Amino acid sequence: xxxxxxxxxxxxxxxxxxxxxxxxxxxxxxxxxxxxxxxxxxxxxxxxxxxxxxxxxxxxxxxxxxxxxxxxxxxxxxxxxxxxxxxxxxxxxxxxxxxxxxxxxxxxxxxxxxxxxxxxxxxxxxxxxxxxxxxxxxxxxxxxxxxxxxxxxxxxxxxxxxxxxxxxxxxxxxxxxxxxxxxxxxxxxxxxxxxxxxxxxxxxxxxxxxxxxxxxxxxxxxxxxxxxxxxxxxxxxxxxxxxxxxxxxxxxxxxxxxxxxxxxxxxxxxxxxxxxxxxxxxxxxxxxxxxxxxxxxxxxxxxxxxxxxxxxxxxxxxxxxxxxxxxxxxxxxxxxxxxxxxxxxxxxxxxxxxxxxxxxxxxxxxxxxxxxxxxxxxxxxxxxxxxxxxxxxxxxxxxxxxxxxxxxxxxxxxxxxxxxxxxxxxxxxxxxxxxxxxxxxxxxxxxxxxxxxxxxxxxxxxxxxxxxxxxxxxxxxxxxxxxxxxxxxxxxxxxxxxxxxxxxxxxxxxxxxxxxxxxxxxxxxxxxxxxxxxxxxxxxxxxxxxxxxxxxxxxxxxxxxxxxxxxxxxxxxxxxxxxxxxxxxxxxxxxxxxxxxxxxxxxxxxxxxxxxxxxxxxxxxxxxxxxxxxxxxxxxxxxxxxxxxxxxxxxxxxxxxxxxxxxxxxxxxxxxxxxxxxxxxxxxxxxxxxxxxxxxxxxxxxxxxxxxxxxxxxxxxxxxxx
Length: 722
What we know:
The chain is mostly helical. It has 25 helices and 14 strands. The strands form 6 sheets. Strands 9-10-11 form a 3-stranded antiparallel sheet. It has a 3-stranded antiparallel sheet with strand order 12-13-14, with no helix packed on it. β9 (409-412) and β10 (415-424) form a beta hairpin. α13 (367-390) crosses α16 and α18 (500-513) crosses α20 (543-571). The N and C termini lie far apart (83 Å).
């Protein structure tokens, strides 16, 4: 059957002889034309401005993967049309896309189209004209299965997004049928009766709520704490340690002495013995290699780094034939001073993360550990901090270069603005757009330290380059949960999924739902919120605008949930306290009457529920969350914070300056009681520590304590009022 397919004559394409990059407006280096349409392999690796996030496999279109030679041409024409929609042969097609698709998008579509065409070939269909509902429905069943690459066994069911992506090229072939009239779907046929690809699997393709889960607090807290500990305390010391590691070989020296240089090694070993320094140890992988080469596990020289000693003695390498004559010297020295990793032996003491004493910041390590494992540790920690605190995407993180950290700007005495420069990739033309982010100092420090451990010759000048976050986060978790993390007093990181999308989602939820929660345990809320809001400074309303829109949507949802919860408390007899409580209770009484009236009118329940929800949303829109109160910002002229700041024309309260005990628009609720109780405890401790000479401070603090106690009494009374 396959032989019969391969002998079918292939027609001449209308795109034959064209250079794909020229037609698709993809910039190529001078003298490099790029792939020709007639090639069976399109390689776009030389295109100028490729994002770091794109992998090599995504830049190569291997049309030989399509089993039917006739359909290889169909796949080429489909891919060409997606990249060059302005070509005259494509522009006149009524259903063709008018916007050029990126190389990465076209690569993904080509891969899924290959799956469709090969599935047809393996099921006895050798012409697109034979395709009907039976074939489409059969392929849809197959598209819902995810198979193991090796065994072919079904391992899980595809998600809605995966099914939609798999079915798009199937339908889009009908849009471009005019390009291959000799082998296209039957005239007028549209797979799945022309329904939008998003509805093929029974789901809607319209926008739905973000389904990305948050990172659980139990996982995020130790993860972020460990990452910050590394970037603040470990990373600067790794940078200094890297400076002590020499190159693999000296620039000069004897390369191939004919006889073992006994005298040079004697002198070197004597220096080790006189100083009492242990001889250098090799890394674990080299030990395994020696054991595989036949070394005995009892050999006293098994762990000795011969190459390290050779470089110290002035030779480029240690030759194997030398070992027999030099062995007695080495064994004697090993017996006297032992073997240990050469770097970090006298590590500086730092305070443990749990505050229980001081420990050396590192155990002795090998040169390879310094160059690779420790650099990976800094990169992973920096990525976690930047993603969790600044909410950056992976495509943006991969573009940062070594000079990304701009000098801090002192906007006021002692107040600095920290910025990093990079590229926006998502939603931009190929090559991205240069932009800047305003970030908190912790993010700026993390980026700077990550840049410092990245050799300029690596990663094409980028700090992180293309990376797999799963691998980095797993290595980081293993380090924290291992000996090093325990020694430094880091809390273990529990098992659980962590992705960059989840970290970005968690930041949005933290800002919207828990403004005094997880992030505020380390950062000032107003600083974090302000810098994230300022975000992409050169392109306001761009990519950062989408993130802020998500935060705003979550804030609106949060406010409604809070209002509904407090209304239910009101119905249970748990009242709000504070000077704004009367207005809030009046509103709840009005809503309660509406609920009772509408409950009696069963003929108009839907309209009534919508009306009540509308009233609740309107009230929720003026809610602002404080650490120890709710602010119902209905009238700026009555807001105490704005009155004190002489800015009553503002449209937002100065929630950080709120004096909720005196503001007529503030309320206190049961959830705020722990904050006030802790405040009372600290005030009592402070008063008890005041000396007899603090005659003015004592009465002022006493008055503040009495006001706190009054607020607590009001909260308790409101909660007990039934």
